[in-house]
Structure formats: structure tokens, C-alpha cells
Amino acid sequence: MSAPVSLRGVSQAFAGSRGGRLALDGVDLEVAAGEFVCVVGPSGCGKSTMLDLLAGHTRPARGDVSVAGAGVRGPGPDRVMVFQEHALFPWLSVRDNVAFGLKNAGVPLEERDATVATWLRKVGLADAADLHPHQLSGGMRQRAALARAFAMRPQVLLMDEPFSALDAPSRDRLHVELQELWAETGVTIVFVTHNVREAVALGDRVIVLSSGPGRIIGDVPVTLHRPRVVESERVVALSATVRRLLDAADQLGISAPREGGDSYVTI
Ligand SMILES: Nc1ncnc2c1ncn2[C@@H]1O[C@H](COP(=O)(O)OP(=O)(O)OP(=O)(O)O)[C@@H](O)[C@H]1O
User: Domain 5-78+154-266: what homologous superfamily?
Assistant: First the structure.
């Protein structure tokens, strides 16, 4: 139910007004099967670009992207993306939203219904199955998006700031619930956020990217007991360390660190 993820020497460029513009430069990242890795970095540093590459929505300009040892050539059911918003189809009920991917994958009706019911129960939406997205709170919408993602039994879950539009209490609850679902399923998670505390609260490791073009400037293991919450003293303390890495990179104008060089930090 989980797969390792690897980016080796990955660079990505987009056409700009004055020729090609690098969004990611020489990114090397290994994520073990079942690991929960968070990626932080300033706006525009290439976090979503990295997820798009893993999802197979785009191909790298240079380097290799692989999942479970096989090169990523396009989207696949082994990798599911969860976005900040606009994730649900407004014209479908919660139940049908969660069933959507399963139906497309040809899962028979009976099995589909059972899977949908299971995941709606796990995310606390059993009573909201017949509602439509506009009838849900932001937190409920993201719960439905999580149910839809987990119901597909992906090997890798790619999460792009999924909780950043939520109020703090909803976000805090979802942090705990996501950690529980992750522990239960063993799925590999790559979670992108610009919120350092969120990254430390959720991740086994926090990967720190420099401002664009994104390069890895830090790889911070988090060994604190789970489930963690953003307000915990230890999360706050470790977040300050990650914050300092980001600030130092900013002040030094770091844009070209290399592993082993002065600007690459492993804690
Ligand atoms: N399809 C595209 N075409 C052209 N430029 C792009 C495209 N996608 C991303 N970029 C550029 O690549 C850089 C990285 O963008 P990306 O969205 O990956 O950053 P990010 O770290 O996710 O930012 P944010 O935190 O603001 O969401 C930016 O300069 C962005 O403008």
C-alpha cells in the first residue's frame, strides 16, 4: 500500500518572457515507502512543481522521477493528489464525490459502496453522505477530499497545502486525523506547505527549499512522539530551527547550494 519516491538531479524550467526560467534546480530527494515527508519553502520556490512531477502531470527538464522504482511517465492510480480547494465536484453528493475515482477505475458497485461507506465513516462524514459540497464547512470539504483520496488506496499521497484555507481549530483536528489515517494505511505522503509548524507537526522529515529556483537547503528529521499538534512546545522549538534555515537562506541570497556545501544543512 505504499511505495518509495525518488527525485534524482531533477530540474524543471518553464518558458518565461525572457526565455526559459528554472523553477527547480538539481533536486535530489529519496522518500522511503510509508514515510511522511513535508516540503517547505517560500512562495514560488517550486513546491507545487515538485508535486506535479511526482503526479506525472509534467515531465522534468532534467533528471529522473520515480515511484516504486519505476520512472514516472504520467498520472496513475498509485498516486493521488489532494489540493487546497476546488477538489470536489459541486454537482455531486459527498458520497458520489468519494465514489468517483472508484467508479472510473471500474470497481463494482457493491465493493464501491462498501469502500465509500468505510471512508466516510473514518473521516466522520457518514451523516453527510447525501449533502453537496456547498452545504459543507471547509473542514468537511477537506475531509471528503481525504476520503476520496484514501478510498483509491494510493501508494503515494501528494498533498498541496490541503489545510491552508481552514480555520485553526479545523486545521488542528485534521492534522491529528491525517496522522491517524497515515498510521493506519501506511501510505507514503509528500505534503507541501509554507507553514513551518504544520510541516514539523506532520512530517517524519521536513525538506527545506530555497527561494526559486528551488534547491534543497535542509533535511530535518522530526522524531517527536505522535500525534503532534502545532502548538506543542517541541513542535514550536523545532519549527524555529527550520525557520532559521529559511531566514538564513533568504539573507544570504542562497540560490545554489549543493549537498556537502556550506549552505546544505542536515540536522
Ligand atoms: N505552468 C507554468 N508555466 C510557467 N511558469 C510556471 C508554471 N508552473 C509554475 N511556474 C513557475 O515556477 C515557479 C515555481 O512555482 P510553484 O507553483 O511550483 O511554486 P510554489 O513553491 O508551489 O509556490 P506557492 O507556495 O506560492 O504555491 C514560479 O516562478 C512559477 O511562476
Answer: P-loop containing nucleotide triphosphate hydrolases (3.40.50.300)
